[in-house]
What we know:
- The structure holds two protein chains of two kinds.
- Chain A has helices at 48-54, 85-89, 106-116, 122-135, 139-142, 155-167, 185-198, 211-217, 235-240, 245-251; strands spanning 10-19, 22-32, 37-41, 65-73, 76-77, 92-95, 173-177, 203-207, 220-225, 228-234.
- Chain A is of the alpha/beta class.
- Chain A has two domains: 1-81 and 219-256, Rossmann fold (3-Layer(aba) Sandwich); 99-171, 3-Layer(aba) Sandwich (Rossmann fold), CATH 3.40.50.300.
- Chain B is mainly alpha-helical.
- Chain B has two domains: 2-45; 48-286, MetI-like (MetI-like fold, Orthogonal Bundle).
- In chain B, helix 6 (139-163) packs across helix 8 (180-209).
- The structure holds adenosine-5'-triphosphate (ATP) and magnesium ion (MG).
Amino acid sequence: MDSNYGTYKLRTRHLNLFYSTKQALKDITINISPNTVTAFIGPSGCGKSTFLRCFNRMNDLIEGVTIDGEVLIDDVDIYKNMVDVHEYRKKVGMVFQKPNPFPKSIFENVAFGLRINGERSKTVLEESVEAALKQAALWEEVKDSLNKSALALSGGQQQRLCIARAIAVKPSVLLMDEPASALDPISTAKIEELIYQLKHSFTIVIVTHNMQQAARVSDKTAFFFMGELIEFDKTDKIFTNPSEDATQNYITGRFG
Amino acid sequence: MNKKRFFNPDIQDKVFKVFAICCTSLGLLTLVVLLIDITIKGIRRINWSFFFSLPSRHADESGIYTALAGMVSLLVITLLIALPIGILSGIYLQEYGKKNRFARLIEINISNLAGVPSVIYGILGLQLFVRTAGLGNSILSGALTLALLIMPIIIVSTREAVKAVPDSLREAAFGLGATKWQTIQRVVLPASFGGILTGIILSTSRAIGETAPLIVVGALAYVPFIPEGPMDQYTSLPIQVFNWTSRPQQGFVVNAAAGIIVLLLFTFILNGTAIYLRNKWYKKIAA
Ligand SMILES: Nc1ncnc2c1ncn2[C@@H]1O[C@H](COP(=O)(O)OP(=O)(O)OP(=O)(O)O)[C@@H](O)[C@H]1O
Ligand SMILES: [Mg+2]
């Protein structure tokens, strides 16, 4: 048992990941505290999404992926000690780059996670859906049209719906892969505001290409380059006085 | 730089449009002429007694009772066999099967099977079901043969429909902790329902119209009774029509025309229902 026990929500230790023979992540060790927002930044193809997907084992779905090292949530190694990956994924919500609501009603989208958990009670479903939509700041806009198709919503609303869908099952971690990159500035601002609110209930990791966004929403920022974690520190520090030249070059736009 | 063209793109566009309209009209016109011809010939024969009479030597006493009963039983059993196997195979191949060379070989072969002339299926059915399995010329033999015939269509269209569901939806479901089967059952199948239904429509229409393989596996031309079980002998509407057209008396030609009208109505109603269901479904998911 090490001294960090119980302090961190998410951790990796010496994590390597290979797509067949190509190494995408190199010896990554990181510690993420609970109820914080952590931003992953770095040039395209540096492995941000790949790393993010390690935390809910979404990479398992891709053929030819091998992983060594440890990924821990609440100090449990999710690749070695996790019996049921489906149960585990329920504790870690994920929001994707492009809004991907199911072609179902707004209500059914949010209720999906509860239904696959076997929840049948109408009152429980209704209460949870309402709570999740409120938490995702979407309730006021959709409360009269819960039975309408989710596909009729705007892109920004769809993305907030996806957030509601993810938090409806009460995960403790929320992974977001460029959640606002397909949205207009107003929707983006709403999502950012939302992230700020959600931090009180969740540990949030967000991948972004938008430096201002990282600076605005995150407590800590991790800079990745070519599959390596170059620097991980307080967001203020990363953006004002980074320790590494590579980080400095990236955030000032000199490459990437 | 400005190359002179014989037609500017605008005119090209119009010419193509006119050409396409001509082709479509030609096809439709032929169909309309045929339909009118059949209707004029057969409509006076369509009345209750035509539906509820057994076949007879006298044209105007002859009806399609047994043929209809045979066709419906045949169709029901065929679909009972072909739908579950076809749809599940399609899902398996697309969602579970490994994508290797062997899988591609199977894929190509299934597509080829969909194009094999139907009489070949008849010969296969004759040997396999009628003789080897000893089912004789029963409805079951016919249904099994038709099931083989339409299964490739169902498999291919199910696969296509399932393939068309974007991976982002699967990821969303997995991300929420759904198992593979939950994802298929609650996301993939509902989202591909329209496409699968289209495949079912196509295959059902095909099964209704098939004559050649049924003749080979021994559907009878003259059946003076209603089939009571899957092991009974039977006839089917297309075969009845086929039989009537080969009679010299004018009265039977009228019967054949009337039979064709019924067959067409059957197909139209079936397709219409399915298209209605599909549109309703599209509306539901697309708001
Ligand atoms: N399914 C895959 N199979 C093989 N290689 C992959 C696969 N997915 C990603 N890679 C490779 O792994 C590396 C990291 O990809 P990843 O998607 O994690 O980058 P990223 O930092 O998220 O990039 P972006 O900012 O463009 O989203 C890239 O070189 C990419 O080509
Ligand atoms: Mg990415």
